[in-house]
Amino acid sequence: MNRRITDKNNFLFIRMIFLVLFVSLFMAGLSIYLIKSSNIVLYNAILNIILIGSVLSTILVFMNGILIVRLLKGKKINSLSRIWMDFFLRYIYIIIIYSSQILRVDKNRIRYVFSQLNNNLILSSGLKVKPEEILVLLPHCLQKTTCPHKITVDINNCKRCGLCDINGLVELKDQYNVRLFVATGGTLARKIINEIRPKAIIAVACERDLSSGILDVKKIPVMGILNERPEGPCINTRVSLDKIEETIKFFIEKGKQ
Ligand code: SF4
Question: From atom 2 of ligand 1, which residue's Cα is the shortest distance away?
Fold first, then answer.
Protein backbone atom coordinates (compact mmCIF):
# COMPACT_ATOMS: atom_id res chain seq x y z
CA MET A 1 0.00 0.00 0.00
CA ASN A 2 2.59 2.47 1.10
CA ARG A 3 4.81 1.77 -1.86
CA ARG A 4 2.10 2.69 -4.37
CA ILE A 5 0.87 5.63 -2.34
CA THR A 6 4.43 6.89 -1.99
CA ASP A 7 4.82 6.57 -5.75
CA LYS A 8 1.67 8.63 -6.20
CA ASN A 9 3.01 11.25 -3.84
CA ASN A 10 6.27 11.26 -5.76
CA PHE A 11 4.33 11.80 -8.97
CA LEU A 12 2.47 14.72 -7.41
CA PHE A 13 5.74 16.13 -6.16
CA ILE A 14 7.35 15.80 -9.60
CA ARG A 15 4.38 17.67 -11.07
CA MET A 16 4.90 20.39 -8.45
CA ILE A 17 8.61 20.62 -9.35
CA PHE A 18 7.76 20.97 -13.03
CA LEU A 19 5.23 23.67 -12.21
CA VAL A 20 7.75 25.63 -10.11
CA LEU A 21 10.37 25.11 -12.83
CA PHE A 22 7.99 26.34 -15.51
CA VAL A 23 7.05 29.45 -13.49
CA SER A 24 10.73 30.18 -12.71
CA LEU A 25 11.77 29.81 -16.36
CA PHE A 26 8.86 31.99 -17.43
CA MET A 27 9.80 34.70 -14.92
CA ALA A 28 13.50 34.50 -15.93
CA GLY A 29 12.59 34.80 -19.62
CA LEU A 30 10.31 37.71 -18.87
CA SER A 31 13.01 39.51 -16.89
CA ILE A 32 15.56 39.08 -19.72
CA TYR A 33 13.00 40.31 -22.24
CA LEU A 34 12.17 43.36 -20.05
CA ILE A 35 15.84 44.27 -19.62
CA LYS A 36 16.45 44.07 -23.36
CA SER A 37 13.15 45.63 -24.42
CA SER A 38 12.67 49.33 -24.96
CA ASN A 39 8.86 49.07 -25.14
CA ILE A 40 7.70 51.16 -22.14
CA VAL A 41 3.98 50.25 -22.55
CA LEU A 42 4.74 46.54 -22.46
CA TYR A 43 7.20 47.07 -19.62
CA ASN A 44 4.52 48.81 -17.51
CA ALA A 45 1.86 46.24 -18.39
CA ILE A 46 4.08 43.35 -17.30
CA LEU A 47 5.09 45.15 -14.10
CA ASN A 48 1.40 45.64 -13.30
CA ILE A 49 0.67 41.97 -13.91
CA ILE A 50 3.53 40.99 -11.56
CA LEU A 51 2.25 43.47 -8.94
CA ILE A 52 -1.34 42.16 -9.15
CA GLY A 53 -0.02 38.58 -9.02
CA SER A 54 1.97 39.33 -5.87
CA VAL A 55 -1.02 41.00 -4.18
CA LEU A 56 -3.31 38.07 -5.07
CA SER A 57 -0.81 35.48 -3.81
CA THR A 58 -0.40 37.41 -0.53
CA ILE A 59 -4.20 37.45 -0.09
CA LEU A 60 -4.33 33.72 -0.91
CA VAL A 61 -1.64 32.87 1.64
CA PHE A 62 -3.37 35.05 4.25
CA MET A 63 -6.83 33.50 3.61
CA ASN A 64 -5.42 29.95 3.69
CA GLY A 65 -3.65 30.78 6.94
CA ILE A 66 -6.94 31.92 8.51
CA LEU A 67 -8.75 28.77 7.30
CA ILE A 68 -6.01 26.47 8.64
CA VAL A 69 -6.04 28.18 12.04
CA ARG A 70 -9.86 27.86 12.16
CA LEU A 71 -9.63 24.16 11.30
CA LEU A 72 -6.89 23.55 13.85
CA LYS A 73 -9.11 25.15 16.49
CA GLY A 74 -11.98 22.87 15.40
CA LYS A 75 -14.11 25.76 14.15
CA LYS A 76 -16.53 25.42 11.24
CA ILE A 77 -15.80 26.78 7.79
CA ASN A 78 -18.27 27.29 4.94
CA SER A 79 -18.75 24.73 2.15
CA LEU A 80 -16.82 26.72 -0.48
CA SER A 81 -13.84 27.04 1.86
CA ARG A 82 -14.09 23.30 2.60
CA ILE A 83 -13.87 22.39 -1.09
CA TRP A 84 -10.90 24.70 -1.50
CA MET A 85 -9.13 23.42 1.63
CA ASP A 86 -9.66 19.81 0.60
CA PHE A 87 -7.76 20.57 -2.60
CA PHE A 88 -5.19 22.91 -1.02
CA LEU A 89 -4.25 20.64 1.91
CA ARG A 90 -3.40 17.73 -0.39
CA TYR A 91 -0.94 19.84 -2.38
CA ILE A 92 0.56 21.79 0.49
CA TYR A 93 1.03 18.54 2.42
CA ILE A 94 3.19 17.08 -0.36
CA ILE A 95 5.34 20.22 -0.43
CA ILE A 96 5.70 20.35 3.37
CA ILE A 97 6.47 16.64 3.73
CA TYR A 98 9.32 16.89 1.21
CA SER A 99 10.56 20.15 2.72
CA SER A 100 10.68 18.41 6.11
CA GLN A 101 13.49 16.20 4.75
CA ILE A 102 15.62 19.27 4.09
CA LEU A 103 14.61 20.99 7.36
CA ARG A 104 14.99 17.72 9.33
CA VAL A 105 11.53 18.01 10.89
CA ASP A 106 9.87 14.83 12.20
CA LYS A 107 7.56 13.73 9.36
CA ASN A 108 5.13 12.06 11.75
CA ARG A 109 4.36 15.41 13.35
CA ILE A 110 3.43 16.82 9.94
CA ARG A 111 1.41 13.69 9.08
CA TYR A 112 -0.43 13.97 12.39
CA VAL A 113 -1.35 17.63 11.80
CA PHE A 114 -2.46 16.78 8.26
CA SER A 115 -4.79 14.00 9.43
CA GLN A 116 -6.16 16.26 12.18
CA LEU A 117 -6.87 19.02 9.65
CA ASN A 118 -8.52 16.46 7.40
CA ASN A 119 -10.67 15.20 10.31
CA ASN A 120 -11.69 18.73 11.27
CA LEU A 121 -12.60 19.42 7.65
CA ILE A 122 -14.97 16.43 7.71
CA LEU A 123 -16.36 17.38 11.14
CA SER A 124 -16.99 20.85 9.80
CA SER A 125 -19.07 19.37 6.97
CA GLY A 126 -21.61 17.82 9.38
CA LEU A 127 -21.89 14.86 6.97
CA LYS A 128 -24.57 12.30 7.90
CA VAL A 129 -24.85 8.80 6.45
CA LYS A 130 -26.64 5.53 7.22
CA PRO A 131 -24.77 3.18 9.60
CA GLU A 132 -24.35 0.52 6.90
CA GLU A 133 -22.68 3.12 4.67
CA ILE A 134 -19.84 3.52 7.17
CA LEU A 135 -16.74 1.41 6.66
CA VAL A 136 -14.34 0.99 9.57
CA LEU A 137 -10.95 -0.10 8.22
CA LEU A 138 -8.50 -1.60 10.68
CA PRO A 139 -4.83 -2.61 10.48
CA HIS A 140 -4.10 -6.27 11.22
CA CYS A 141 -1.54 -5.27 13.90
CA LEU A 142 -4.50 -4.59 16.23
CA GLN A 143 -4.91 -8.33 16.59
CA LYS A 144 -2.95 -10.07 19.35
CA THR A 145 0.04 -11.71 17.66
CA THR A 146 -0.61 -14.98 19.51
CA CYS A 147 -4.24 -15.17 18.36
CA PRO A 148 -4.80 -18.16 16.05
CA HIS A 149 -8.08 -16.88 14.54
CA LYS A 150 -7.89 -15.44 11.05
CA ILE A 151 -9.82 -12.18 11.27
CA THR A 152 -8.41 -10.79 8.01
CA VAL A 153 -10.73 -13.14 6.14
CA ASP A 154 -13.74 -12.47 8.35
CA ILE A 155 -13.78 -10.24 11.43
CA ASN A 156 -16.50 -12.50 12.89
CA ASN A 157 -13.84 -15.21 13.32
CA CYS A 158 -12.82 -13.30 16.47
CA LYS A 159 -13.76 -15.42 19.50
CA ARG A 160 -14.17 -12.32 21.69
CA CYS A 161 -11.62 -13.36 24.30
CA GLY A 162 -10.88 -9.68 25.01
CA LEU A 163 -7.09 -9.97 24.71
CA CYS A 164 -7.06 -7.26 22.04
CA ASP A 165 -9.25 -4.37 20.87
CA ILE A 166 -10.78 -6.43 18.04
CA ASN A 167 -13.26 -7.68 20.64
CA GLY A 168 -14.54 -4.17 21.44
CA LEU A 169 -14.52 -3.19 17.77
CA VAL A 170 -16.72 -6.17 16.83
CA GLU A 171 -19.08 -5.12 19.64
CA LEU A 172 -19.26 -1.61 18.15
CA LYS A 173 -19.95 -3.12 14.71
CA ASP A 174 -22.86 -5.13 16.11
CA GLN A 175 -24.16 -2.23 18.17
CA TYR A 176 -24.18 0.34 15.34
CA ASN A 177 -24.49 -1.96 12.30
CA VAL A 178 -21.45 -0.48 10.55
CA ARG A 179 -19.15 -2.42 8.19
CA LEU A 180 -15.88 -3.52 9.80
CA PHE A 181 -12.87 -4.96 7.97
CA VAL A 182 -9.22 -5.66 8.63
CA ALA A 183 -6.93 -4.76 5.75
CA THR A 184 -3.46 -6.25 5.49
CA GLY A 185 -2.35 -3.64 2.96
CA GLY A 186 -3.35 -0.96 0.51
CA THR A 187 -4.39 -3.33 -2.26
CA LEU A 188 -6.82 -5.12 0.01
CA ALA A 189 -8.04 -1.80 1.46
CA ARG A 190 -8.79 -0.50 -2.04
CA LYS A 191 -10.54 -3.78 -2.93
CA ILE A 192 -12.73 -3.54 0.19
CA ILE A 193 -13.58 0.11 -0.55
CA ASN A 194 -14.47 -0.73 -4.17
CA GLU A 195 -16.71 -3.61 -3.12
CA ILE A 196 -18.43 -1.90 -0.16
CA ARG A 197 -18.68 1.54 -1.78
CA PRO A 198 -19.04 3.32 1.59
CA LYS A 199 -20.11 6.93 1.97
CA ALA A 200 -17.75 7.46 4.92
CA ILE A 201 -14.61 5.68 6.11
CA ILE A 202 -13.14 5.52 9.59
CA ALA A 203 -9.53 4.41 9.23
CA VAL A 204 -7.26 3.30 12.06
CA ALA A 205 -3.51 3.36 11.38
CA CYS A 206 -0.17 4.94 12.23
CA GLU A 207 0.62 8.51 11.09
CA ARG A 208 2.25 7.39 7.85
CA ASP A 209 -0.51 5.01 6.73
CA LEU A 210 -3.24 7.42 7.80
CA SER A 211 -1.94 10.32 5.75
CA SER A 212 -1.26 8.02 2.79
CA GLY A 213 -4.76 6.55 2.99
CA ILE A 214 -6.37 9.99 3.21
CA LEU A 215 -4.45 11.08 0.10
CA ASP A 216 -5.22 7.86 -1.72
CA VAL A 217 -9.01 7.91 -1.24
CA LYS A 218 -10.29 11.00 -2.98
CA LYS A 219 -14.07 11.07 -3.18
CA ILE A 220 -14.98 9.47 0.14
CA PRO A 221 -14.35 11.27 3.45
CA VAL A 222 -11.78 9.39 5.55
CA MET A 223 -11.68 10.11 9.27
CA GLY A 224 -8.28 9.06 10.53
CA ILE A 225 -7.82 7.65 14.03
CA LEU A 226 -4.29 7.11 15.24
CA ASN A 227 -3.44 3.74 16.75
CA GLU A 228 -1.50 3.40 19.98
CA ARG A 229 1.77 1.44 19.97
CA PRO A 230 2.63 0.37 23.52
CA GLU A 231 4.88 -2.45 22.24
CA GLY A 232 6.36 -0.55 19.30
CA PRO A 233 5.17 -0.22 15.71
CA CYS A 234 3.13 -2.91 13.95
CA ILE A 235 2.77 -5.25 16.92
CA ASN A 236 -0.15 -5.61 19.34
CA THR A 237 -1.29 -2.06 18.67
CA ARG A 238 -4.32 -0.54 20.39
CA VAL A 239 -7.00 1.99 19.52
CA SER A 240 -9.34 4.14 21.57
CA LEU A 241 -12.78 2.52 21.29
CA ASP A 242 -14.30 5.76 22.61
CA LYS A 243 -12.85 7.68 19.66
CA ILE A 244 -14.21 5.11 17.19
CA GLU A 245 -17.66 5.23 18.81
CA GLU A 246 -17.61 9.03 18.89
CA THR A 247 -16.79 9.11 15.17
CA ILE A 248 -19.50 6.59 14.28
CA LYS A 249 -21.99 8.71 16.24
CA PHE A 250 -20.84 11.84 14.44
CA PHE A 251 -21.65 10.26 11.08
CA ILE A 252 -25.02 8.76 12.03
CA GLU A 253 -26.57 11.00 14.66
CA LYS A 254 -28.60 13.82 13.20
CA GLY A 255 -28.98 17.20 14.89
CA LYS A 256 -26.10 16.66 17.32
CA GLN A 257 -23.38 18.49 15.43
S1 SF4 B 1 -10.22 -10.56 20.91
FE2 SF4 B 1 -10.51 -11.79 19.06
S3 SF4 B 1 -8.85 -11.25 17.72
FE4 SF4 B 1 -8.28 -10.50 19.76
S5 SF4 B 1 -7.07 -12.18 20.62
FE6 SF4 B 1 -9.18 -12.51 21.24
S7 SF4 B 1 -10.05 -13.87 19.66
FE8 SF4 B 1 -8.15 -13.01 18.86
Answer: 158
Q: What integer pLDDT is reported at residue 257 of this predicted model?
A: 42
Give pLDDT tens digits for 160-200: 999 999 999 999 999 999 999 999 888 899 999 999 999 99
In angstroms, the CA 212 to CA 186 distance is: 9
CATH-assigned architecture of domain 118-252: 3-Layer(aba) Sandwich (3.40)
pTM of the model: 0.80
> Shortest CA distance to 147 belongs to which of 127, 132, 162?
162
| Bridge partner list, 73 | none
From the alpha carbon of 149, which atom of ligand 1 is closest?
8
Task: Determine if ligand 1 sits within 6 Å of the CB of residue 220.
Answer: no
Helices 107-125 and 207-216 sit at what angle, rounded to 10 degrees? 50
Distance from residue 207's CA to the centre of ligand 1 (Å): 24
Model confidence at 218: pLDDT above 60: yes
Least Cα distance to 209 among 194, 178, 188 occurs for: 188
Ligand 1 within 6 A of 64 CB?
A: no
Domain boundary assignment for the chain: 2-110, 118-252
Q: For ligand 1, is residue 237 a contact (CB within 6 Å)?
A: no
137, 140, 193, 203, 215 from 188: Cα distances, Å: 10, 12, 9, 14, 16
Atom from ligand 1 closest to the CA of residue 148: 8
Distance 142 CA to ligand 1 centre (A): 9
